[in-house]
Design a protein that fits this description.
six-stranded parallel β-sheet; Rossmann fold; 35% helix; globular; alpha/beta; 179 residues; single chain
């Protein structure tokens, strides 16, 4: 079986070089999907950029999303005709778009897509994520038809979590890609 191209989808404000996502890009040759505007993300722009990245890939893709990137995947999957190209998605630390802070800062991201994903997926959440309660993250996994993984008290599962290369996450991705 051909190994899919891994597309890395950072969340709002992007991921810095110490974030496990960009460490994976550097270490494994994955493709980071760049956005035109990381600070004022418009859902339509982000969905179009993901569509372009999927179509630019020579074959199947795997998606690795963090934070707002998880909602990007769900919204894209609800509208794209190219979802069959996705083998799997690792969705880490989805944010709660219903909080007043996020709904005000990111108005184009409402309503949240609750549609079941047409590909296999894992949602990874944390017991003390300041941007998403454990219940909300579990609800996203249930809505999206994804396997749920509780990482314990790991914050927003980013650089502040001090995960380094996050080998546990890489193992989850590799398990998702087995057929």
């Amino acid at each position: 079986m051909i190994t899919p191209r891994v597309l890395v989808l950072p969340g709002w404000q992007g991921s810095g070089p110490a974030h496990w996502q960009l460490r994976w890009v550097a270490a494994h040759g994955y493709t980071a999907v760049e956005q035109h505007d990381w600070l004022r993300p418009l859902r339509g722009d982000w969905l179009m950029r993901l569509e372009e990245a999927v179509l630019e890939a020579p074959g199947a893709v795997a998606l690795v999303a963090h934070g707002l990137g998880c909602h990007q995947v769900a919204a894209w999957a609800a509208h794209s005709h190219n979802t069959a190209r996705v083998r799997a998605a690792l969705l880490v630390a989805p944010v709660d778009m219903q909080t007043p802070e996020l709904s005000h800062a990111l108005p184009s991201w409402s309503p949240v897509s609750r549609q079941r994903l047409p590909f296999k997926a894992v949602v990874v959440g944390s017991e003390n994520d300041p941007y998403c309660s454990l219940d909300e993250a579990q609800t996203r996994a249930l809505n999206w038809g994804a396997q749920w993984v509780n990482l314990g008290p790991a914050g927003h599962i980013n650089t502040e979590s001090k995960l380094g290369d996050w080998p546990q996450g890489l193992a989850l991705l590799n398990e998702l890609l087995k057929d």
